[in-house]
Amino acid sequence: MSVVPLAPPKRLIDLTIDGEAVRVPEGTTLLQACRAQEIDTPTLCYLESLTPVNVCRVCVVEVEGSRTLVPACSRKAEPGMVVHTDSDRVRLSRRIVLEFLSSSVDTSLAGPVSPNGELARYAAEYGADPARYGTPNGHDGQPDRDATEPGHHHVPEASETATVTQTVKVDNDLYVRDYAKCVLCYKCVEACGVDAQNTFAIAVAGRGFDARISTEYAVPLPDSACVYCGNCIGVCPTGALMFKSEHDMRAAGTWDEDEQTVTTTICPYCGVGCNLEVHVQDNTIVKVTSPMDHSVTSGHLCIKGRFGFQYVQSRRPEKRAESDGGG
User: Fold this and answer.
1) Phi/psi of residue 269, each to 5°?
2) Running DSSP on this structure, what letter comes out for residue 124?
């Protein structure tokens, strides 16, 4: 008879959320407790498969007795806690954060995991009005922000709002980096680091408004430690990191998610058993993702699983007809 070790049972703790008594297991975060109560709590830098880094601050809630608002994604529930998720203080904080982000960053594609406009819904819900900070300048005078010298800042016109707009980085055939859409959520850094790939090809460089995601010594991606697993794309919430196929189709105006079908299958390259979600438009695979709730991958893939679909396109029907006709 085999002995199966069991973890000690977690004790339950009682707290109050928005006036309702709640009981959750010890170690539960306030975000998990809120979601268990079906309380819609916005998040941007949080993902179940990554370590919380507490940088976006849109999930903050008010805890009685706490001097400041606390990030729900990482604050653990404690016995007797009294939590308010929709107080005036919370709504004001979330509104200001959303306004700051939308005034300086292109958030038109922002969503919780993939570009789906979720941030726009929250902006409307909290009454965020980024236009009150002025008209975005459309450029910051630094086409390549990697070349920014510490302490040297471009001063925008008084009537304009400074933005992080810069040239889209297209230095490989697999994915592009449009950091004009980057909100510095750190998800790509965590996925490239200890939470998934352990490659450490990217990190945050600079400080303050000059902070940006960069490779070591700001070298082009092919010269960096990047192994092209694409896990950074899978966790990016704003479209700053995107399949080149999707980027090209968006630029051509042919990208249409409503016309796409998603089929779940198993990656054919090895025996690990990673699940793939194949996105197809006009009988052509346009990108591949992996479900976050899959026990094998947790949304992560290797270069073959995420980008190896391109061999399927090498013999399209028209090409087969040409080769067959040529005898």
Assistant:
1) -80, -30
2) H
Long-range contacts of range 93-96, CB-CB < 8 Å, 24 or more positions apart?
Answer: 93/57, 93/60, 93/69, 94/42, 94/58, 94/60, 94/122, 94/126, 95/126, 95/127, 95/128
Quote the tokens at residue 215: 């490779």
Query: How close are the terminal C-alpha atoms of the chain, in Å?
Result: 66
State how far the Cα of 91 lies from the Cα of 318, in Å rounded to an integer: 56
Structural domains of the chain ordered from first start: 7-133 (3.10.20.740)
Residue pLDDT, tens place only, 193-244: 888 888 999 999 888 888 889 888 888 888 999 999 989 998 888 889 999 9
Rounded to two decimals, the pTM is 0.81
Q: What is the DSSP string of 148-185?
A: PPTT------TTEE-------B--SSSEEE-GGG----
DSSP state of 65: T
Identify the bridge partners of residue 278 per DSSP, sorted by sequence position: 263, 288
Q: Are the beta carbons of 209 and 196 closer than 8 angstroms?
A: no
Say which residues have a Cβ less than 8 Å from residue 257's Cβ, sequence separation at least 6.
Answer: none
Q: How many Å is the Cα radius of gyration of the chain? A: 22
Q: Can you tell me whether residue 244 is helix, strand or coil?
A: helix
Chain-centre distance of CA 41, in angstroms? Answer: 16
